[in-house]
């Protein structure tokens, strides 16, 4: 469940108000930002104003500006002796909408902590972490994970229409098989079948459905590069039947990072990840609740501060979203829980 904005004073009573603390200090005791430079968040010239960020409605800008001016309070939930710290969140820059945005944004949000990883490298680290965790999971947990995968990528098209207008089925086609697949589709077209129906038939028969853990790992490895082993085929359906077939003939489609991938990132770096969703008027939420937090926690210990990602909301997919951007988090003295924009 996401954590919407609320009255931070309502939860302040549950938090001790310690003497002023910061999350990092240099030898001189100055406040440090995540990349090691002394920062005064109230006068940080590097912070991008939310007025300058494209693609936001006024109510989104106002909600996000509160995160930058007032900050959010966080405390390590697994260390009862840990002191709260406030993070001031500003926009970390645009990233390309090429399907790799989760990983590109995460590299930017983590800064030096990403240890030289690029988006493709971080994607592969995420997949490797998933396979390690899946290998050590019990049969019940593995079954639950694979049920989630089937629900997202190989849904039962007999149901779900009360929630979704369009449902997608993801299939993997080996790049080396594309010529044979095209020939098989052409054969059906030559005997009178419509091209789209022929493509659906051949792809469903000969391609790999994304319906279990190992196949999810193959799917999530796809970055739209010529080095990928597979191409992503997407079949779109409405309640009335097939809507479209995205054959991805150029092989540029990348696997969009999902909640499973985010949790794997949290496990890999032993950090909490907060996805900040900012919804516009089309999401049917009031302005007070248009910005909220979706937390993803690592399985084991938390060894570092959280990092934050922005997900711009769109109403058509049920208040979901389709693009990640990085948020820059500067830490500072805890003034008072009542004065922050939100308590995580």
From TrEMBL:
Lineage: Eukaryota, Viridiplantae, Streptophyta, Embryophyta, Tracheophyta
Naturally occurring in which organism (per UniProt): Trapa incisa
Protein name according to UniProt: Gap junction beta-4 protein
